[in-house]
From TrEMBL:
GO biological process: lysosome organization; regulation of intracellular pH
Transmembrane region(s): 47-66, 95-119, 188-207, 213-230, 281-299, 344-367, 373-392
Presence of the UniProt keyword Membrane in the record: yes
Alphabetized InterPro entries for the sequence: Battenin_disease_Cln3, Battenin_disease_Cln3_subgr, MFS_trans_sf
One GO cellular component term: lysosomal membrane
Feature: compositional bias, Acidic residues: 16-28
UniProt record similarity statement: Belongs to the battenin family.
Subcellular location: Endomembrane system; Lysosome membrane
Name of this chain's protein: Battenin
Highest taxon listed in the record's lineage: Eukaryota
Main location: membrane
Keyword vocabulary terms for this entry: Lysosome, Membrane, Transmembrane, Transmembrane helix, Transport
Length: 440
């Protein structure tokens, strides 16, 4: 009772009696803030899961469809002719699926390398709007394409959407509680399994590759809903316009992370400051780049050469199953942060490199068919588990160990490491593919 009287006196010019105070409190009693915070918290966590799902969906689908994209469409029902080398011991497409990988990753690499120089000057709503438009364009272009070059252009649009989205949404996590990082990561893993499984399921159900891609236009629409309607951003987030620098503090950007209220975040870090931050990130970035190099060398350089001719599935169906099982492993490990945390990412990079070397020797000496398709399926799932665990734990380690005023920049710049590893693997996978396919 005494506290209520003091509160009223503090807000007015004199002390008020108990009855008047009770009446005033009944008139201005707000909605309990805890309930609002819980609701906003779950909305934001759900939004980040869906943002991760939608952001990586087109990228995953293009890789799952790579074996089909590299065929020449001959009619409106997507009847496909395969160009193979009849003299090779391997069942090869004329062009390696690594070509699709490069089209799907090089624009992302360019964006991630250049974005730290300018991305902080573009409000988030404009970035996300561009992600939505390019994702939709990618599905439309590839589905209606009749030439490989045009199809690869559609893959480039998917890459722009995914690359811009990743650096945008990872930077966006700096404005929310730290748990959104694990939900974002789990969503990207969900994109892997749902993207590859949906493409596999639709094609097995009899839909053509073209119609399967058209069905997936619902994903850009879901991205729009998740960001603009489901998410509850703080007032400090620069959505359409930037707030004044003095109004943006660490506590605004990190509402649930303890930080000094007197510390002010500088949204425009100088070039010198950025170069000083990057060396501290290398211990996370280098192992992650190695993991992704080995991982995508397997995915886009070796998968198409692992062929079991004596099973009921065609070569294209086997390739789709490889992609789906790999993404299943990724989904499980990217969703495991609340159960298992890993500090030594270099252990995962060593295991992934060992797996790539084993499969490379298996293809070179043709002993993989002797171990059976189910064993290959298990190996591929393990590969996905390693890659997903490296991703989620690397970014979690950065989020936990970065200074609050550096977190937004650190999360954005560190995501270049996986893209760099993927790009290098694609460049090497093409000559490896050509070498094996030239063998008599």
């Amino acid at each position: 009772m005494e506290n209520r009287g003091l509160s009223a006196g503090a807000s007015g010019s004199h002390w008020e009696d108990e009855d008047d105070d009770d009446d005033e409190e009944e008139d201005v009693l707000p909605v309990p803030p805890l309930q609002t915070e819980i609701s906003s918290g779950w909305r934001n966590l759900s939004a980040f899961w869906l943002l991760g799902l939608c952001n990586n969906f087109a990228y995953v689908v293009m890789l799952s469809a790579a074996h089909d994209i590299l065929r020449t469409e001959t009619n409106e029902t997507s009847t496909l002719n395969i160009s193979r080398s009849n003299n090779s011991r391997y069942d090869c497409n004329e062009i390696s699926t690594a070509a699709v990988l490069l089209a799907d990753i090089l624009p992302t690499l360019i964006i991630k390398f250049s974005a730290p120089l300018y991305i902080h000057r573009i409000p988030y709503n404009y970035r996300v709007s561009l992600c939505i438009l390019t994702a939709a364009a990618s599905f439309l272009i590839v589905s209606y394409s009749t030439q490989i070059s045009v199809s690869l252009l559609g893959v480039v649009f998917a890459s722009v959407s995914s690359g811009l989205g990743e650096i945008t949404f990872l930077s966006l996590t700096a404005f929310f509680q730290s748990d959104v990082v694990s939900f974002w990561s789990s969503g990207t893993g969900g994109a892997g399994i749902l993207g590859s499984l949906s493409y596999l399921g639709l094609t097995l159900a009899g839909l053509s590759a073209r119609n399967s891609l058209l069905v997936m236009l619902m994903i850009p629409a879901l991205l729009l809903i998740s960001y603009f309607f489901l998410m509850r951003p703080p007032s400090s987030l620069p959505r359409w316009f930037f707030p004044k620098a003095a109004e943006t503090s660490v506590t605004d950007r990190q509402p649930l992370i303890q930080a000094s209220a007197s510390t002010v975040t500088d949204p425009d870090l100088t070039t010198s400051q950025k170069w000083k931050i990057i060396p501290s990130l290398l211990k996370y970035m280098i192992p992650l780049a190695i993991v992704y190099f080995a991982e995508y060398f397997i995915n886009q350089g070796l998968y198409e050469l692992i062929y079991f001719p004596d099973v009921s599935m065609s070569h294209s169906e086997q390739y789709r199953w490889y992609q789906m099982l790999y993404q299943a492993g990724v989904f499980v490990s990217r969703s495991s942060l609340r159960c298992v945390t890993i500090r030594r990412i270099w252990i995962l990079s060593l295991l992934q490199c060992a797996l790539a070397i084993f499969l490379l020797f298996g293809i070179a000496y043709l002993f993989l068919p002797s171990i059976g398709l189910p064993v290959i399926f298990l190996i591929i799932i393990f590969e996905g588990l390693l890659g997903g665990a490296a991703y989620v734990n690397s970014f979690n380690n950065i989020a936990v160990n970065s200074k609050p005023e550096h977190k937004e920049f650190s999360m954005g710049v560190a995501c270049v490491s996986d893209t760099l590893g993927i790009s290098l693997s694609g460049a090497i996978a093409i000559p490896v593919h050509n070498y094996f396919c030239s063998l008599p």
